[in-house]
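@channel sequence for tomorrow's demo:
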Amino acid sequence: MTSAATRAGAASSDNVLHGVLLMMFGLLILSSTDGVVKYLSEFFSPLTVAFFRFAVQLVIILAIAPFQKRSWRSLLQETTLPLFCRGLLLAVGSVFIVFGLKYLPLTDATAIFFVQPVILVVLSAVFLKEKVGAKRWLAVLIGFAGVLVIMRPGTGVFQPASLLILAAAFTFACYLMLTRKLSGQASQLAIQFATGFAGSLFILPIIFYAWLTGFGGDLVIADQEADFTLPTILLLCLGGTGLFAHVLLVKAFERAPLLFWRLSTTWKLSLQPQSVIWSSTRFRMSLSGLASGCSSAVG
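structure tokens (generated this afternoon):
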């Protein structure tokens, strides 16, 4: 009996370890895309970047489906309302973040976005009933204070675009909570199809409206004489890299509890190349990272 329990405990520990490693690799990929999105904002509007992120993912899934003996109809039938809402949350968050990255320095945007693990603590406690101790609630307050230091509301240096990153952090936290709740309830192909479908369906009418009215500026920003070869390649690759990263995250949540996301998110902070440069902006960024780490480390 003891031996069986030991083996079960070891298997559970292995699952958690595998889950954390998958999260870390997924976050490594997502970290690299932040800089790509910032670069693409010099050539394309945020709406264009966000749309291609999901449209390319949808095309890739539809191309893979026949090899898995699936049709688009079967994938659509497997797309439940919660799965659609999950994809919609990611799409809304993506629109917020690409607009925010257009107007904010990457370091400030990244620092503000790290309020997301703090939000996730609250959501996991309220909706998933995960245990959150008094020290972790204290870390939540510290994290919130750190974000206020970065955003500096009510001062002359406050930038309204900060609210876009804050909104993106909230929607992404909701997306992660829903991902954890739905883990194991649908095939990986259906999950990623729902994400691409929901994102494309959400952004396409906005793109069409922007094209007709000029809302949000031109869909292509750079001068027509500019070299669009690299930006176009990166724009098309964005959907593929995002798809792969989120496949890893879904797999991770099938193995590890949601609370381990905060540990991996803290590790993501160290992947940002700007975080090793010492300046006042980077110091403020470290406050947010410290708060994220606290919410993982204290019980």
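heads up for whoever presents: DSSP finds twelve helices and no strands in the chain.
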